[in-house]
């Protein structure tokens, strides 16, 4: 059961940050409407992805319950909080991606490979508890690993890994959003410019 | 009223060159009069309209707008191709805080798209998109309408309908239109301007603007 709990926060992060990446470049027509700002178009994509993932997660849980398989988290509030912080982290990365994508047209190829690497380095299938200490110490720099383990602690009351640092994830998420918004503000004139 | 304060705008072209559209331009489009901006192909007329609308931002300088300014009206649509004309109009109405039902009814009547009004905008011809855009902008009360070279939309009958609608609207709203067609500018505007070589000059009447445009070596249509 533990590996499966890794996928939901991973996908919340990847779906949001990847869809938001195209928030400016794929919305040329929408952004011709002056009241619609790049910020709106980017954030809307993130909200849509998050809402979709939440609905899917609820449907999966309800499906398990309907089949008589107990899948409800031991601590629903903890799991939900973890997902929200993960979404904020993805939102920050999404804003950074959206700005970079308008400047560097091949940025999406880089990001897609980053998310592929994160798939292996975030403790989804190779649960951090199974890793050698030295490997886990290195991978613990990856905020997404904390997102996934935080989500797990919500599902399994007995699971409370000593390497999990919730504050590290929260600080990373806030810094990512700040970086994304600063980039958007700094390059706004460039975002609202017809591609030559 | 739209005022430009030391506005500069430059493009990087595909060949790696730079094209200057506006070079430290300070100008004012005053309230209560319709201005036609003349410019050759490639002078940056469409860019000027997008800058005035706020769909694009200048490299330097400020643009001030008093009153509600329309989105840029032209062939380049502001529509989502997968949504129908009706859905697009509903979206624009929500963006500008207009009432949905009267706005949609007005556009359905004005644009004369028939069954296409409920088809994806992807399936529209350029003329149909322009009709939808004109309808949508007329349905919302803007103080200034920004029009990009759309004198050839639809057939003669629809052009006359458009001209009549705008003449009616011109009693309370202003029009700024860019064109290289002298007939269009005489038809709609009492003032003229010329955009050439990064400079924008406003003239008190259309005739002087046409003269200046001719002297700049451009060919009038």
Short synopsis of the structure:
By secondary structure, chain A is mostly helical.
Note the run of SSEs of chain A as H and E.
HHHHHHHH
Shape of chain A: globular
Q: Most extensive chain contact? A: A-B, 14 and 25 residues
Total strands of chain B: the figure is 8
Percent of residues in helices of chain A: 55-70%
Q: What structural category characterises the helix and strand content of chain B? A: alpha/beta
- Looking at how many chains there are and whether they match, the oligomeric state comes to heterodimer
**Lateral strand order in the biggest sheet of chain B:** 5-6-3-7-8
Give the terminus-to-terminus CA distance of chain B: 29 Å
Calculate Rg of chain A over CA atoms.
Answer: 18 Å
Mean pLDDT of chain A: 92
Largest sheet of chain B: 5 strands, mixed
Compute the number of helices of chain A: 8
The best one-word shape of chain B is globular
Q: Label the structural class of chain A.
A: mainly alpha
Provide the succession of SSEs of chain B: EEEHEHHHEHEHEEH
Radius of gyration of chain B, whole Å: 17 Å
Low-confidence stretches of chain A: none
Strand content of chain A: under 5%
Largest sheet of chain A: none
End-to-end distance of chain A, in Å?
51 Å
């Amino acid at each position: 059961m533990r590996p499966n709990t890794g996928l939901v926060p991973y996908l919340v992060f990847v779906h949001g940050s990847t869809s938001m990446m195209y928030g400016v470049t794929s919305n040329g027509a929408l952004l011709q409407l002056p009241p619609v700002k790049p910020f709106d178009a980017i954030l809307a994509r993130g909200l849509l992805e998050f809402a979709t993932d939440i609905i899917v997660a609820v449907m999966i849980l309800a499906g398990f319950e309907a089949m008589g398989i107990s899948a409800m988290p031991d601590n629903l509030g903890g799991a939900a909080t973890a997902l929200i912080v993960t979404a904020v982290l993805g939102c920050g990365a999404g804003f950074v991606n959206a700005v970079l994508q308008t400047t560097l047209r091949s940025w999406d190829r880089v990001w897609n490979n980053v998310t592929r690497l994160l798939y292996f380095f975030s403790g989804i299938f190779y649960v951090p508890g199974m890793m050698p200490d030295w490997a886990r110490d290195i991978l613990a720099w990856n905020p997404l690993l904390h997102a996934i383990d935080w989500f797990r602690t919500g599902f399994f009351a007995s699971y409370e890994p000593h390497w999990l640092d919730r504050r590290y994830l929260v600080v990373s998420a806030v810094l990512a959003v700040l970086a994304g918004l600063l980039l958007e503000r700094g390059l706004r004139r460039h975002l609202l410019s017809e591609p030559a | 009223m739209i005022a430009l304060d030391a506005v500069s705008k430059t493009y990087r072209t595909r060949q790696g060159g730079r094209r200057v559209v506006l070079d430290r331009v300070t100008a004012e489009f005053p309230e209560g009069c319709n201005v036609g901006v003349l410019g050759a192909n490639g002078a940056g007329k469409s860019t000027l309209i997008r800058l005035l609308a706020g769909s694009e931002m200048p490299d330097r300088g400020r643009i001030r707008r008093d009153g509600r300014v329309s989105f840029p009206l032209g062939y380049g649509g502001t529509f989502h191709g997968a949504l129908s004309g009706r859905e697009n109009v509903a979206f624009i109405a929500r963006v500008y805080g207009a009432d949905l039902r009267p706005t949609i009814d007005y556009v359905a009547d004005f644009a004369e798209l028939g069954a296409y009004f409920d088809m994806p905008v992807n399936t529209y011809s350029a003329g149909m998109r322009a009709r939808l855009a004109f309808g949508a902008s007329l349905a919302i009360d803007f103080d200034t309408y920004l029009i990009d070279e759309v004198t050839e939309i639809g057939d003669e009958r629809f052009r006359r309908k458009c001209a009549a609608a705008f003449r009616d609207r011109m009693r309370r709203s202003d029009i700024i239109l860019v064109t290289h067609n002298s007939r269009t500018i005489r038809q709609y505007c009492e003032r003229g301007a010329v955009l050439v070589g990064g400079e924008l000059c406003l003239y008190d009447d259309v005739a002087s603007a046409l003269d200046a445009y001719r002297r700049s070596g451009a060919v009038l249509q």
